[in-house]
Amino acid sequence: MKSHLNGECWLDDDGNPIQAHGGGILEHNGVYYWYGENRDAVARKENGNKNYLGGGVAAYHSSDLVHWKSLSVVLKASDDPQHDLHVGNVLERPKVIYHPTSKKFVMWMHVDSQDYKMARAGVAVADDPAGPFRYLQSFRPNQFMSRDQTVFIDRDGIAYHIGASDNNATAMISQLSDDFLSPSRKFVKAFEKRYMEAFSFVEHAGKYWMLASGCTGWKPNQARSAVADHFMGPWQELANPCVGDGADLTFGGQSAYIIPAGRINRGPVAMFDIWRPDDLKTSGYVWLPITWKGGQMVIRHQPRWPNPMD
């Protein structure tokens, strides 16, 4: 069986680097869709500073979470300097959820200016998981800043948006509207003054578990974890969930998403990015199974995904 070397740049079925950085997985009708930042663009330097050209959101599909076929760019960047998705702006951490009533696929993302002062959440929709997605708008959820972000659907069908707010000092958890297209007025601030980003969530054993990162830019740091009985909290911080060599720096990576237990994977899988800022398009991936012991989330390093010993 084909496997990917954890930490390396993964290739799709055509032999090209997978451009799904900071991404997430949607399972729909037995197919897995992997959406992420398309970094297949040449960095440029202006006034001595390096800027990264936005390449929109790329997507891939798979039946086994191993072999990935490219769907190309499903949300394109814009050449309009006034557009949120202008190639000179920031587009990060796209996540897609499915609305069962409208049958729309809803993409949430962090959109920002190069100086990160815009700090907004953007929303796009599609009629098909393979796109194309149509960009709708951006906003600050409930008037609060929103940078690194993700979305989560609870067992009762209620969806939530989670974003790094207050200059990354706080996690803002906002219940979404019934159509998943905007935040409702129900929200809480969590992890105040804890400076977290790269949020990922999973439900296990009747509780909600969070995996996140400290705020050190492209450089890896020690992973964070937390648990709650209700998604809007209160949340209790736990120990670093990573175990083994390299655990103090999250095995060189940063959390991106947790794939829930499903028909292929027997348990949840934590997705991490290995950022290579000098050549972002070759940034690598690490996928590792999550287990639990003594009320703690545990993530042990393995050399390959999937582990040939499984």
What does this structure look like?
It is built from no helices and 25 strands. It has strands at residues 4-5, 21-28, 31-37, 44-46, 49-51, 57-62, 69-75, 90-99, 104-112, 120-126, 134-139, 149-153, 159-165, 170-176, 183-190, 196-204, 207-214, 224-228, 235-238, 242-243, 254-259, 269-274, 284-293, 296-300, 304-305. The strands form 7 sheets. The protein has a 5-stranded mixed beta sheet, with no helix packed on it. A 4-stranded antiparallel beta sheet has the order 2-3-6-7, with no helix packed on it. Strand 14 and strand 15 (183-190) form a beta hairpin. The N and C termini lie close together (12 Å). The mean pLDDT is 95.
Provide a concise account of the structure shown:
With 310 residues, this protein is mainly β. It contains no helices and 25 strands.
Mean pLDDT: 95
List low-pLDDT spans: none
- Strand tally, please? 25
**Beta-strand percentage?**
over 45%
**Total number of helical segments?**
0
> What proportion of the residues is helical, as a percent range?
under 10%
Intertermini distance:
12 Å
Rg (CA only): 18 Å
Strand order of the largest sheet: 20-24-23-22-21
User: What profile does the largest beta sheet have?
Assistant: 5 strands, mixed
